[in-house]
Amino acid sequence: MTDATAIAHALDLRRAGKSWRGACPACGGSDRSAKFIVTEKDGKLLWFCHSGCSQSAIRQELADRGLMARPDPRRPQPKYSRDQIEIAELIVLVGEAALRRQEWPNEQDHAALVRAAGIVRESPRNTTQGRLASKALATSHMRVYLGDNL
Ligand SMILES: [Zn+2]
After folding, report:
1. What is the pTM of this model?
2. Domain residue ranges of the chain, discontinuous segments joined by +
């Protein structure tokens, strides 16, 4: 019992097109406003709570109710989503290009660049953009700029 239909039945959700809507299992968001949505895309279960419940809070609640398997604690969970990594790679690439032109980022950009560099370093990807971002981190001006932050 891990598919959207089973969860929809267990949570008493209403069918709405390709998805199901109703009360959120985590926050109990009212059934009338249909704040909680469950759907399946490409065989993957997706859910969203308009009240702002986190993905992990809902996953935990579904697991507590026996509606889905608990994440295997032995298997490390990816720390960052693919979107987060892609954005971090772009920030690193843009930052590296700016540094190469000797345009020094302001404080806010600096913080974003340090954060992005950390994500890229921890989550290297074997994609064109991922390889370029890792390469950008290894350039001398980037290493000098980030210093201890790298
Ligand atoms: Zn919720």
Report:
1. 0.51
2. 4-64, 82-149
